Here is the input.
Amino acid sequence: MDKEELMQTAITARKNAYVPYSHFAVGAAVISADGRVFSGANIENASYGITMCAERNAIFAAACAGVREISALAVVADTDGGVAPCGACRQAMTEFMGAQTPVYLGNLHGTIDTTTVTELLPGAFNKEDMHNA
Ligand code: THU
Here is the structure.
């Protein structure tokens, strides 16, 4: 699956966003190292703080199916440029994505900016930081 197809999967997933409060719909999709595709959308709640972002819903759907290595992630929203993932999602990406794993930031007008989790969250906390525990 190429980046356009993964982005299209994210655009389709975005249709299921539940956003009665922000009205800002986000979709995301990941592909695992063994070729499986998972998607997610943001799901809000009347208790605003428990809202879950699209990226984490996609990542956690993959993880719940046993995925421990993600090969690419796409995220999309109705933004002028490629949508910027929030800090919590950048940290969540760090768990299952390598330094060079592509992250595609898209919008509804065909923008696909390619970056990496290392660029998005330099110096991220990760499992290596706990080796003295
Ligand atoms: N949102 C995401 O789904 N992903 C992000 O990385 C940024 C924010 C959602 C959360 C909330 O439902 C809405 O966008 C506005 O913050």
About this structure: The longest helix spans residues 3-14. The chain has a mean pLDDT of 97. Residues 1 and 35 are 8 Å apart (CA to CA).
